[in-house]
């Protein structure tokens, strides 16, 4: 059964079987505006919590998306190469950014649940 | 960067009601986008008509027997050659011929001119002009008054701008690109803008502005457009943003803006910076502003370093983003004059990767001004 977590940096993680699917929240995509490019990571890349995993580019600016936990990239959402606007239209489903194998599942405990995230964005 | 010093637009409540997202620009809280988003706002402007609140920009009236001479000193301009209602794109230059600000000057009458200045520079511009006027006055040479006007300033841009204004009761009739006049008391309207499209800029009192905005927004051809799309529109149109593409360290020759300076003024004008500009023209500028088209979809941003194929430093990017009408990333920057040729291939450093960029003629999208 998948469980969903959130971060204060406006990311969501859906965790199932030690693999997290990660994207940005609807609130975040609204703040960024129309995306025109997503720089995706290569599978196999190891990231520590806080490392830049993905760069999302809007018409106006580039923004880093950080790894919310330690782990190894297993897959990037390559459909975003041809259609970065999926992040705007479906931030929490088809607009996911990358999947990673968690190095330490206990790090999840420090993340927010949906209610706490909603309180965070007010 | 919040605080009590942030300036607010007189029509801010209308932008709030339109659910604008605000951001700081040049000391002002400005609507960046509306719910339609930057892409739709940009494309709507090119296809129909975009309404922009540009009240952060400042209108100055310069009047008096010395107005012409003051402008000729402050700007590389022959103010006396302007016909009444004619506008001219020009600059305030420093002694090194660096661009303090870029301006539009319109002749309103024999001894009256309207000057439109950029938001972030307006105070410095006013001080600069007043200082010049005082210096001249002390020598008994001039008599010119500079008045900063309290106006709402709106731009309506796009192929249907004239029709929307007409429906709102404002006939634009025979007004041509880069001409302006005073259609009503305390109004100033010019056929101009910063999008590459046909359009108008109107300075007017707040009460009148509220009426006009209400009428314009009843028209489905018109939508509010924020500062984000204003930036992508002007970048596609190859127009400089002061502070990025032109600065007090950059002269008009390097910026490729010599078209704005008449030949006689170049040769014999007594404007501030004339000697420095003539010296630069004589030896040729070391770098030039060019359009840059990155390969692929990844935008290159201001500050990105440019290299030639051998990895030698070639210049840097000053404006960059995505061009919704062009359909690809667009940028401008400065490169060594020897490299500044259309078609030349360079590389931009974006977070450590080298993105190929072609030097591209400007503008990226053709200008559609109504010149006659």
Structure commentary:
- The complex is a heterodimer of chains A (about 120) and B (about 375).
- Chain A has one domain (about 5-120): RNA polymerase II/Efflux pump adaptor protein, barrel-sandwich hybrid domain (OB fold (Dihydrolipoamide Acetyltransferase, E2P)).
- In chain A, the strands form 2 sheets. A 6-stranded antiparallel β-sheet of chain A has the order 1-2-3-9-8-5. A 3-stranded antiparallel β-sheet of chain A has the order 4-6-7, with no helix packed on it.
- Chain A contains 4 helices and 9 strands, in the order βββαβββββααβα.
- Chain A is globular, with a radius of gyration of 13 Å.
- Chain A has helices at about 25-30, 80, 85-90, 115-120, and strands at about 5, 10-15, 20-25, 35-40, 45, 50-60, 60-65, 70-75, 100.
- The radius of gyration of chain B is 21 Å and the shape is globular.
- In chain B, helix 2 crosses helix 7.
- The longest helix of chain B has 17 residues, at about 120-140.
- In chain B, the strands form 4 sheets. Chain B has a 6-stranded mixed β-sheet.
- The mean pLDDT of chain B is about 95.
- With about 375 residues, chain B is α+β, with helices and mostly antiparallel strands.
- The interface between A and B is medium-sized, with 16 and 20 residues.
- Chain A: Its cofactor is (R)-lipoate.
- Chain A: This is Glycine cleavage system H protein.
- Chain A: InterPro entries: 2-oxoA_DH_lipoyl-BS (IPR003016), Biotin_lipoyl (IPR000089), GCV_H (IPR002930), GCV_H/Fam206 (IPR033753), GCV_H_sub (IPR017453), Single_hybrid_motif (IPR011053).
- Chain A: One of its GO terms (cellular component) is glycine cleavage complex.
